[in-house]
Amino acid sequence: MPDLERNKQVVVDYYQTAFGGNPEKAVNDHFGDRYIQHNPDAADGPEAFTGFVTWLRGEYPNLKLDIKRVIAEGDMVVTHSHLDLEPGNPDNPGRALADFFRLENGKVVEHWDVIQDVPKTAANNNGMF
Question: pLDDT tens, 69-86?
């Protein structure tokens, strides 16, 4: 049985390090021998990931990633996060992310995601997080 808590820590550190402004360190510390990407807008490989995060931080230099939930089962870790692109800007409340990471030997090797813009209004008062 995989070490679920260790896998959760790996993913949280990887994700916070990358979106905190150091995607190269996140890749060096936490990627395995390959990185398979299932987002149709993203290429495979660590270079593509690093390039995306660098571009995103260039567009939104104050962005903040707030991981709300982390769930692990087997070799999978799932995070539910709020990516606030412009903290404090009510006109851009950010995105809700559901990310699925597969790990091998404690390293991230595969990724799926579901991304939804956070709406300014909702049909209920429950919030997305």
Answer: 999 999 999 999 999 999
